[in-house]
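User: Let's play a game. I give you a shape written as C-alpha cells, and you guess the letters that built it. Ready? Here's round one.
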C-alpha cells in the first residue's frame, strides 16, 4: 500500500483514531509539521515518512490497514498523480485507468492498467491542464481482462464484456476504429445488454504534431489505430449503471432537423420536412455552433457537437443518424452552474468513473472550476453505449437494493 500526496493531505487534515501507537504519534508530529509548512515539498516529506513506516511495519499495521483504506477510499475516486506515484501503484499490482500525455503513458511500466492520451482533466480542485501529471482511477475488482480491438474486431466489444459489470473502452480520436464504432455501435450484438462506457483519447490542442493513443498497459503497447478495453466484473450483489449529465435542452423554437445521409459529415438535411443545405441553413439562421444538436432517443437527449463547416459540408464530433429527430440546443450561459444544478439532483450516486467533453471544458471555461465527484479525463468524445459529444458520462456501482437517482435532461 502506497499513500499518494493527495491521500497524505487528507490524512493530515482529518481526525481518525488508529490503534498502532507509533503510527498515531508519527501522524500527530507530521500534522504539526504540515500546519507550519504546507508547501509541496513538505507534503512530499510527510508522504515519504508515512510510506516508509507502513512498508517497515506491515505486520503490526494490519489492524489499522482497513481504517486507513476506509479513510482514503471515502474521498473521490480519481487522483492527480506524479509519474513516480503512478509507477508505484502499477508496480504494486493495482488495477488502474490512467489519463495523461502519450509521452508519459509510453514510459509507464507494464501492469494492470489501460490509458488514453489527454492533457485536460477534471480534478477535485477543478479543471486542470497538465502535461506533467496523470489522472489515475483505481478499481477494487479482482475479475477483469484487457483487450485491444481493431476496426474489424470492435464489433465484439459487448460480447466480450462481463454480464455483471462494466467496460471502459478508449478510442484514439479520429482513428478508423473510432469512426467504425461511432457509426455502427448501436447495431452491435449485446451493445445495450452490457455496460459499455469510455472515451476518445485526444491531444493538447495548442501543441501540433501529437497523436491520440490508447494504451494496453498489460502488454505495454500504445495504439494510434486500435481501441483498448478494460472489462470489469463487479460483485454479484452490486449493479453497475451508465448515466449521463446533459446540461443542454432542445430549443423548442428550433425546427425539427432530420438526416437521410448518416455520419460525421453531412451536406443536406430536412428542416421541418423540407430538404435544405445544412451549412446554408446554419448560416441563414445564425445558429451558434457552440451549441450541439440534440437527438431525441425516446425522451432522452443525445448530443452531437459541431466541429467545422468547410466547402458547404458540416463536420461533426459524432455521427447523425436517419430516423432520429434533432433540434438545436438552448443557450447555456454558465456551464459550471449548469453542472452544479444537475449534480444537486443526483443523490446517493457512488461514482466510480466519469469523463467530460473537451467542448464543455473550453466553451464553459471549466479550468479551475469544480464538478464535485465527477472527476476524470476531459475527452474528445464520450461513450455511453454509443459515441456522444458535449456530454458528461459516468458509471455508478451500488447495491442491488439501492438505485441512485439519475437525472437526464428530457427532450
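Assistant: Ready! My guess for every position:
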Amino acid at each position: 500500500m502506497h499513500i499518494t500526496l493527495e491521500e497524505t493531505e487528507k490524512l493530515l487534515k482529518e481526525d481518525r483514531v488508529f490503534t498502532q501507537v507509533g503510527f498515531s504519534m508519527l501522524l500527530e508530529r507530521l500534522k504539526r509539521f504540515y500546519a507550519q509548512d504546507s508547501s509541496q515539498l513538505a507534503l512530499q516529506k510527510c508522504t515519504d515518512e508515512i510510506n516508509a513506516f507502513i512498508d517497515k511495519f506491515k505486520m503490526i499495521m494490519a489492524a489499522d490497514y482497513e481504517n486507513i483504506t476506509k479513510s482514503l477510499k471515502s474521498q473521490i475516486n480519481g487522483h492527480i498523480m506524479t509519474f513516480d506515484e503512478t509507477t508505484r501503484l502499477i508496480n504494486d499490482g493495482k488495477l488502474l485507468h490512467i489519463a495523461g500525455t502519450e509521452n508519459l503513458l509510453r514510459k509507464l511500466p507494464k501492469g494492470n492498467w489501460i490509458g488514453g492520451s489527454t492533457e485536460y482533466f477534471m480534478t477535485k480542485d477543478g479543471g486542470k491542464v497538465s502535461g506533467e501529471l496523470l489522472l489515475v482511477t483505481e478499481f477494487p475488482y479482482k475479475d477483469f481482462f484487457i483487450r485491444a480491438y481493431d476496426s474489424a474486431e470492435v464489433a465484439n466489444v459487448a460480447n466480450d464484456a462481463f454480464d455483471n459489470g462494466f467496460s471502459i473502452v478508449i478510442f484514439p480520436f479520429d482513428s478508423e476504429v473510432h469512426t467504425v464504432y461511432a457509426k455502427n455501435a448501436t447495431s452491435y450484438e449485446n451493445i445495450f445488454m452490457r455496460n459499455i462506457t469510455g472515451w476518445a483519447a485526444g491531444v493538447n490542442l495548442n501543441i501540433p504534431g501529437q497523436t491520440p493513443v490508447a494504451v494496453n498497459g498489460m502488454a505495454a503497447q500504445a495504439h494510434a489505430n486500435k481501441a483498448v478495453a478494460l472489462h470489469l466484473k463487479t460483485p454479484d450483489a452490486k449493479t453497475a449503471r451508465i448515466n449521463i449529465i446533459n446540461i443542454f435542452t432542445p430549443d423548442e423554437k428550433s425546427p425539427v432537423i432530420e438526416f437521410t445521409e448518416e455520419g460525421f459529415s453531412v451536406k443536406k438535411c430536412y428542416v421541418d420536412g423540407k430538404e435544405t443545405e445544412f451549412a446554408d441553413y446554419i448560416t441563414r439562421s445564425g445558429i451558434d455552433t457552440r451549441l450541439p444538436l440534440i437527438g431525441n432517443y425516446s425522451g432522452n437527449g443525445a448530443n452531437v457537437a459541431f466541429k467545422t463547416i468547410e466547402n458547404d459540408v458540416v463536420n461533426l464530433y459524432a455521427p447523425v443518424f436517419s430516423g432520429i429527430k434533432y433540434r438545436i440546443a438552448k443557450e447555456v450561459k454558465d456551464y459550471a452552474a449548469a453542472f452544479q444544478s444537475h449534480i444537486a439532483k443526483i443523490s446517493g450516486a457512488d461514482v466510480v468513473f466519469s469523463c467530460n467533453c473537451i467542448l464543455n471544458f473550453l466553451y464553459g471555461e471549466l479550468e479551475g472550476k469544480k464538478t464535485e465527484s465527477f472527476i476524470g479525463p476531459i475527452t474528445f468524445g464520450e461513450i455511453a453505449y454509443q459515441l456522444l459529444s458535449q456530454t458528461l458520462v459516468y458509471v455508478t456501482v451500488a447495491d442491488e437494493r439501492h438505485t441512485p437517482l439519475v437525472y437526464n435532461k428530457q427532450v
